[in-house]
Amino acid sequence: MGLALLVVLVTFANTFYAGYLQQREMLIRNTLESNQAYATKAAGLTDGFLQQALSQLGYSAQLLGSGFDSPAVQSAETRRLLQQNQTYNSVVIVNAAGKVLNISPPMAEVVGQQIGSSGMLAALQARQPLVSEPFVAGTGRLVIFISHPVFAPGGEYLGFIGGSVYLHDQNALHAVLGQHHFLNGSYLFVVDRQGRLIFHRDQERVGENVMRNRVVQSVIQRNEAGSAESVNTRGESMLSGYAPVGLTGWGVVVQRPTELTLDVLPLQVQGMLWKVAPLLVATLLAIWALARWIAKPLHDLARIANRLDDADTAGNIAQVPSWYYEVIKLKQAILAGLSQVQRRITRLNTETVTDPLTGLLNRRGMMETLQAWEEAGRPFSVAVIDIDHFKSINDTYGHDAGDTVLRFLADHMRRAARAGDVLCRQGGDEFTLLLPATPAHEAVHACERLTHGMAFEHAYPGVTITLSIGVADFRREDIHVNGTLKAADVALYQAKRRGRNQLVEAERA
Question: Which pLDDT belongs to residue 308?
């Protein structure tokens, strides 16, 4: 039963642990997939935002192509772009020589000045739609510059129109990316191709280089979407999804602390345990009941085997239910052993061990029986019986009368004996009664029944007899039966010395 319970508990623990690992893996996988999906969506929105911004600038560049030198047209376009959807923090028109022609919000001190920022210089040289690399403007702010070239109707390059997006300030780009702040602890950030933060929920971190983050390296270098478990630049374990912005090569990363994702795991495991516990308890109870049911026949046989000297042992063994192989074979073996003992005892009642006059066991038969009981460690009592003044009966009435008296005593011993008692005649007028599983004080009562039963009968016409009896018992802790026989003989002699017609129980140390 212990082995079965151990196997069930180990199996349950292994299954429970496997379920725990599966739940953990599922939470992590779902978070990674969700973050990758959000990163891909945010990258797409960012790309769409930039494409729309370039499209707006392209429309304005087309209008400016035929009225590039008109201050009214210039002001109208810069104001419209600035106010249309808050895409830009400022809008500027620059001619082919690199001088600022118009700017919104208006800055009189800038108009007519030569451009010097890296983003505007790149736009001037590119002469094509361009989203610049983030750069630090003269104001100290991190900026990206989105521009579109302006061409005259004849194809002459006139300059460009462009808008600045301040990465530290609120604008349409922040509105697009800010949609992906989640209540579950996930957050989004964007890096440029050098690994600098150009968007982060913590505005103070904008401009920080985080290229050492393995996820940032993957999205910038591989330029493909994916997800991974990682450790951020602050040593926190994260579940990250990422995707590139196709137009600029930026990387969008959505991540969530692993600890937050796994916070729900204990509750899920607890719920799983409550669902499984009833079945586990029922299984353990079933094992306990089944084990007891299987073990009961073995327990009964062990109990009976400890009391093989009982008269009803064979019947008790037969009543033990035997519904499986091992119990069947054990029952057969025990019954065979009992049968062998019975056959051995029966064999002792042959002519070689039987007294021909009385039909009782002779001394040889008695000693073989005692030897078998000694080997089996079987407790018993022995009563040595002697007929008082038997010699005078022989002398007075003859040997035939003496033989009749001996048969008379043997018959009374049979009537007084129990099933399993062994009756012996050692020789002459000395008889022995062996009582298995009987302590000495019970053997005394059996001998008293014998003497009372024959006290008022004539053993031979005109002859009544009395008996002197010595009783001793052999116990499991005794070593040899010879000591028991000697003790019974000593008790018999004490009975004779005390005047015969007495029963004396041997004293034990």
Answer: 67
Single-letter amino acid code for the residue at 229: E
Of the candidates 311, 314, 315, 312, which has an alpha carbon nearest to the alpha carbon of residue 336?
314
Query: Tokens standing for 272?
Result: 């799983």
CATH code of the domain covering residue 115: 3.30.450.20
Instruction: Return the exposure string of 194-214: e unless at least 16 CB atoms fall within 10 Å of the residue's CB, then b.
Output: ebbbbbbeeeeebbeebeebe
In this structure, the answer to whether residues 125 and 249 fall within a common structural domain is yes
| Shared-domain flag, residues 173 and 220 | yes
- Once rounded to an integer, what is the mean pLDDT over residues 425-435? 93
Q: CB within 8 A of 21, min separation 6: which ones?
A: none
Q: Give the pLDDT score at 207.
A: 87
Q: Are residues 117 and 84 in the same domain?
A: yes
109 with 236, same domain? yes
- What residue has token string 């690199």? 98
Q: Tell me: the pLDDT tens digits for 276-305?
A: 788 878 888 888 888 888 888 888 888 777
Structural tokens at position 71: 């201050």
Domain termination site, one of 348, 381, 402:
348
Are 454 and 396 members of one domain?
Answer: yes
Count of CB atoms situated within 10 Å of the CB of 384: 25
- Tell whether 110 and 200 lie within a shared domain: yes
- For 261, other C-beta atoms within 10 Å of its C-beta total 23
Task: Please state the pTM of the whole predicted model.
Answer: 0.55
Do residues 385 and 430 touch, judged by C-beta distance below 8 A? yes
Listing DSSP states for 125-138 in one string gives: HH-S-EEPPPEE-T
CA–chain centroid gap for 413, Å, is 68
Beta pairing class for 135-136 and 422-427? unpaired
Reading the block at residue 509, the tokens are: 């140390």
Number of residues that make up the chain: 509
Question: What does the longest C-alpha to C-alpha distance in the chain come to?
Answer: 175
Beta strands in 388-496 (DSSP E): 422-427, 430-436, 467-474
Query: How many whole angstroms separate alpha carbon 425 and alpha carbon 305?
Result: 32
Which of 164, 169, 213 is closest to 191 using CA atoms? 213
75 part of a folded domain: yes
- Note the pLDDT tens digit of each residue in 175-199: 777 665 555 778 889 999 999 998 8
As for how many domains the chain has, the answer is 3
Domain that holds residue 249: 29-269
Tokens of 170: 């609120």
Whether residue 67 sits in one domain with residue 206? yes
- Only one residue has tokens 């900026």, namely 143
Identify whether 293 is part of a domain.
Answer: no
In the predicted model, what is the mean pLDDT of residues 114-129? Answer: 92
Q: Supply the pLDDT for residue 348.
A: 54
CATH number for the domain spanning 437: value is: 3.30.70.270
